Amino acid sequence: MLPRHHDPIVAVATAPGRGAVGIVRASGKDLGVVIRALCGKRLMPRHATYLPFLDSDGATSIDQGIAIHFPAPHSYTGEEVLELQAHGGPVVLQLLLARCLEAGRGIGLRVAEPGEFTERAYLNDKLDLAQAEAVIDLIDASTEAAARSATRSLSGDFSREIHTLRDQLIHLRMLVEATLDFPEEEIDFLEKADARGQLTRITAQLDAVLDRARQGALLREGIKVVIAGQPNVGKSSLLNALAGAELAIVTPIAGTTRDKVSQTIQIQGVPVHVIDTAGIRGEHAATDEVERIGIARTWAEIEGADALLFLHDLTRMGEADYDAGEADIVARLPAALSSGDRLVHVLNKSDAAQVARAHGIALSAKTGAGLDELRRKLLELAGWHASPEGLFIARTRHVDALRRTREHLALADAQATSPDPALDILAEELRLAQAALGEITGEFSADDLLGEIFSRFCIGK
Ligand SMILES: Nc1nc2c(c(=O)[nH]1)N(C=O)[C@@H](CNc1ccc(C(=O)N[C@@H](CCC(=O)O)C(=O)O)cc1)CN2
Ligand SMILES: Nc1nc2c(ncn2[C@@H]2O[C@H](COP(=O)(O)OP(=O)(O)OP(=O)(O)O)[C@@H](O)[C@H]2O)c(=O)[nH]1
Ligand SMILES: [Mg+2]
User: Fold this and answer.
1) For Mg(2+), which residues are the binding ones (predicted)?
2) Whether residue 126 has its Cβ less than 6 Å from ligand 1
3) 72-131 per-position pLDDT tens digit
């Protein structure tokens, strides 16, 4: 452990601002001095005691509240923990925090960094890395489905699946390593133990976990969808229709939207970050400076989109000007978009025109007709095929680790199925597969990764 992991720490654990109740929480060794100073007496372990929180003079109280002492190791962090549950005013909480720091000067008490309580829980084996990540994912969850799957990951569902895979891998590795030690029997031994069968079963299970992790990562991260097209085709109207609120200004004037307007909506619990952009028209047509900058931003948004909704106006198709404008946009679309399946043609204003063109989704931002089909299309494009029940939250980091595990298993399988298998390579690939898997729960993790993960937490968590 790094030296800083030995300092006792303290922070306000509740959200900034005013609230009914606010908590100051300390964790570390030798909190007795802080308890005596603020509570004036010893506290019964893990019992809520109502008492005055004492100021430096030992007589006046800062507040009256509930104190709880969790002796190590039975606490959130696994260290000794003191909780002061006070009235939830920012000033009273700052006074309590300052008083704790003063009383704890002798033991080196300092203010906690973001995520440091949870980092300690991880370092003291109260949570593994995937569970610690689920803590912040639960706090950050923006949809019910995301919150429920974060709770599932926090309670260890995801980690258990990873451990099951790991245990099977270890079993297989032992078999292969043992065979390496008795080269004369090698092929025979592997065959008897059905090493290949084991490898196939592990791979199939890994694929299932990988699929669920991808869905979980989608629930956490969502997708970025950009609405773009010529001016006046109804982009802002579509954003408003999807969001169910008048977010962006809609007028019959071409060039109404100057800057992007973003809103996160949810479709079946999947967060969808929708971005409405300034209408694109050719260099010659965009006369003013503001509009030109707006259009440049539109193109920048298109570059980073998971999906592009290219919006067309059914009432204007066939007009020479309009068709020329469409051709301009098509010519400038990034190749990756126009060739892939991330581009969706949306034909708007179906309420006011005949729908002639077949390819694309016809809808009316005005009446809402066709919106459900668009929502379905977006989920399909995102790769969403699960129902949120039974999912666990996951991150890109987890999906990457599972993918690398998968690659090593494939390389191991290539040896296992070869007529002349190189057992040392087989053994090495299995070792690498286990190491990649171990990154998820933090069995094999570098310090900089931990710093990166915990620094994203809020203070006091
Ligand atoms: N007041 C308060 N509420 C809170 C927290 C907290 O720290 N304080 N939590 C913080 O995020 C969450 C709860 N997490 C906790 C996790 C473990 C333990 C704990 O005491 N664990 C002991 C005993 C377990 C047991 O009795 O089964 C242990 O692990 O040994 C407490 C809270 C949510 N609510
Ligand atoms: N009939 C009909 N009119 C629509 C529909 N959607 C939008 N409109 C109208 O089309 C006009 C332009 O709508 P906006 O949503 O502002 O279009 P935009 O693409 O955001 O325009 P810019 O921001 O200028 O690029 C408005 O008068 C809308 O009322 C639709 O589905 N049907
Ligand atoms: Mg607009």
Assistant:
1) 236, 257
2) yes
3) 999 999 999 999 999 999 999 999 999 999 999 999 999 999 999 999 999 999 999 999
Q: Which of 12, 21, 76, 133 to mutate to test the pocket of ligand 1 (most atoms within 8 A of CB)?
A: 76
Parts of the chain with a pLDDT under 70: 1-3, 183-189, 283-284, 286-287, 357-358, 388
CATH 3.30.1360.120 spans which residues of the chain?
3-127
Q: What are phi and psi of 175, to 5 degrees?
A: -60, -50
Number of the ligand 2 atom closest to the C-alpha atom of 229: 19
Residue 403 Cα distances to 100, 173, 206, 213, angstroms:
47, 19, 9, 11
State which fold the 139-217+395-441 domain adopts. Four Helix Bundle (Hemerythrin (Met), subunit A) (1.20.120)
Alpha carbon of 284 to ligand 2 centroid (Å): 23
Tokens of 144: 């019910």
Query: Residue 235 Cα, ligand 2 centroid: separation in angstroms?
Result: 7
Is residue 228 within 6 Å of ligand 2 at its C-beta? no
Residue 418, class by beta-carbon neighbours within 10 Å (0-12 exposed, 13-18 middle, 19+ buried)? Answer: exposed
Distance 27 CA to ligand 1 centre (A): 12
Summarize pLDDT for 232-249 with one digit per residue, the tens.
Answer: 999 999 999 999 999 999
Ligand 2 atom with the shortest distance to the CA of 230: 25
Complex ipTM, two decimals? 0.84
Q: Which amino acid is at 421?
A: P
Q: Is 256 annotated as a binding residue?
A: yes
What pTM did the predictor assign? 0.84
At 390 the pLDDT is: 77
The ranges of the chain annotated as CATH 1.20.120.430 are 139-217+395-441
| Site of tokens 């430096």 | 56
Of 377, 340, 374, 398, which Cα lies nearest the Cα of 215? 398
275 CA → ligand 3 middle, Å: 11
In this structure, which CATH number among 3.40.50.1950, 3.10.450.590, 3.40.50.300, 3.40.50.11270 belongs to the domain 222-382?
3.40.50.300
Tell the CATH topology of 3-127. Gyrase A; domain 2 (3.30.1360)
